[in-house]
TrEMBL record:
SUPFAM superfamilies: BAR/IMD domain-like. The lineage of its organism: Eukaryota, Metazoa, Chordata, Craniata, Vertebrata. Residues 16-25 have a biased composition (Polar residues). Residues 1-27 are annotated as: Disordered. This is ADP-ribosylation factor interacting protein 2a. Signal peptide: none annotated. Residues 140-340 form the AH domain.
Length: 360
């Protein structure tokens, strides 16, 4: 009751001014005085009651705050243990994520460095190529090797012409053999239907069939010749020319980095320039070793190619000559002996034609 009475007194207090007269205070001063009064005459917070009714209600509606108890907070060691157990897993996931990001970042940096080196190398080589074309730059020349390369390219061009002509010969001669085959079949049919000319048609039919048989043998020899020359030109020579192209690219790169090193050597010799000269020296050495290695490879391949070419063409030219001579001389025995000598196997007649199932 005493606390209730004090609260009413604090609420019903009339403010006065400094002269003792009642007056109107400003809103801020009134608020400040109210707060001070509550601080001085208000109830103790530890003994505060909650009023369930209106202001000035009966005491029965007052509920002491000391009777309200909240939930107790207890220490749960199992929960903390589970958190400790789960924590390393979370750390492992974060660690794996970071590792993946680092790997991806490393790959991206590596690709960027590769593109950067490619761009610098392309620029230097393009600059060197235009300098050589316009006569402002020098190039490394191996006169003996360059002469051998020119001979190889000229030889390949002439051998390709042999292939074209031999292929055309096969096409035309095959048409003639097919015509002879059809003519022989016609003579055979007429020999059976014309008794008065049976012998004459029969002789011509046998002659055309013999010519057709010898023509197929000659076609087998020419096909073998074309196949061997084609392997020599489009595989063996082409492999050597591929190495030559790599050698020429290496020569261009070597001259580009050599020119770059010469330009830097003629410039100032301060600390930054010396660092660039040292890096240029290292690049020059790398491309010099690559150039010399490929030059050696080209020399070796040219040597073996020449030996292989002589061996292959000696055999194939002898086959071509003997087969052509035996056919047009009408020497069937010599023609067959030539095929056996060079291990030429003839395809059975009609093997090149598609089967009836493939034609459907």
């Amino acid at each position: 009751m005493a606390d209730n009475t004090m609260s009413k007194a604090a609420t019903m207090e009339i403010p006065i001014n400094s002269n003792g007269d009642t007056g109107t205070l400003t809103e801020d001063d009134s608020l400040e005085q109210d707060l001070q009064q509550v601080m001085v005459s208000g109830p103790n917070l530890n003994e505060t009651s909650i009023v369930s009714g209106g202001y000035g209600g009966p005491a029965g509606g007052i509920i002491p705050t000391s009777s309200i108890k909240g939930p107790a907070v207890r220490y749960n060691p199992e929960y903390l243990d589970r958190r400790r157990t789960a924590a390393p897993g979370l750390g492992s996931i974060n660690h794996n994520t970071n590792s993946t990001e680092e790997v991806s970042r490393g790959v991206a940096v590596e690709k960027l460095d590769s593109v950067k080196k490619w761009g610098i190398n392309t620029y230097k080589c393009t600059k060197q190529m235009f300098s050589e074309k316009f006569g402002r730059g020098s190039r490394t020349v191996d006169l003996e090797l360059e002469a051998q390369i020119d001979v190889l390219r000229d030889t390949k061009s002439k051998y390709e012409n042999i292939l074209r002509l031999a292929t055309a010969l096969i096409t035309h001669f095959q048409s003639m053999v097919q015509t002879q085959q059809a003519l022989g079949d016609t003579f055979t049919d007429l020999s059976q239907k014309s008794p008065e000319l049976q012998d004459e048609f029969g002789y011509n039919a046998e002659t055309q069939k013999l010519l057709c048989k010898n023509g197929e043998a000659l076609l087998g020899a020419i096909n073998f010749f074309v196949s061997s020359v084609n392997t020599l030109v489009n595989k063996t020579m082409e492999d050597t020319l591929l190495t030559i192209r790599q050698y020429e690219n290496a020569r261009l790169e070597f001259d580009a980095y050599r020119s770059d090193l010469e330009e830097l050597s003629l410039g100032p010799r301060d600390a930054a320039a010396m660092v660039r000269i040292e890096m240029a020296q290292q690049d020059y050495q790398v491309h010099r070793e690559k150039y010399e290695r490929l030059r050696s490879d080209v020399s070796i391949k040219l040597k073996f190619l020449e030996e292989n070419k002589v061996k292959v063409m000696h055999k194939q030219l002898l086959l071509f000559h003997n087969a052509i001579s035996a056919y047009f001389a009408g020497n069937q025995q010599q023609l067959e002996q030539t095929l056996i000598q060079f291990n030429v196997k003839l395809k059975p007649p009609g093997s090149d034609k598609p089967s009836w199932l493939e034609e459907q």
